[in-house]
Design goal:
It contains three helices and three strands. By secondary structure, it is an alpha+beta fold. It has a three-stranded antiparallel β-sheet with strand order 1-3-2. The longest helix has 17 residues, at about 1-20.
Length: about 110
């Protein structure tokens, strides 16, 4: 019985050595829908940036597709940058879209599987 308890304790301690929490910093780029004017695209970009900053961790986890990481928590948007892109939809039609660059960080479990 003592051997079993000793082995179980050893395995528990060994497992905790290999799994620890790390803070990861990431960058992403989100693109809005297309708009007829540049000002509409700029407004949409700032609306998106403000929404990201106010979203909960679970909403941000879905937005940034953090499925490949274990036990993601404390997702925080660090910085956003809004720019616009002009493109030609057809010969006589110019449209605009906003590009929102996002810097964010989060805590995740690192299993040292690499």
């Amino acid at each position: 019985m003592k051997k079993l308890i000793t082995i179980a304790t050893g395995l528990l301690l060994t497992g905790s050595v290999f799994a620890h929490t790390v803070t990861l910093h990431k960058n992403d780029q989100l693109v809005t829908a297309e708009y007829a004017s540049k000002s509409e695209a700029v407004n949409a970009g700032f609306d998106l940036a403000e929404t990201l900053k106010s979203n909960s961790s679970s909403e941000l986890r879905k937005e940034f597709n953090l499925i490949g990481h274990s036990f993601v928590r404390n997702i925080t948007v660090d910085n956003t940058e809004v720019s616009t892109q002009e493109f030609v939809a057809s010969r006589d039609e110019t449209k605009y879209r906003a590009i929102v660059k996002v810097s964010y960080y989060f805590d995740a479990e690192d299993n040292n599987d690499e």
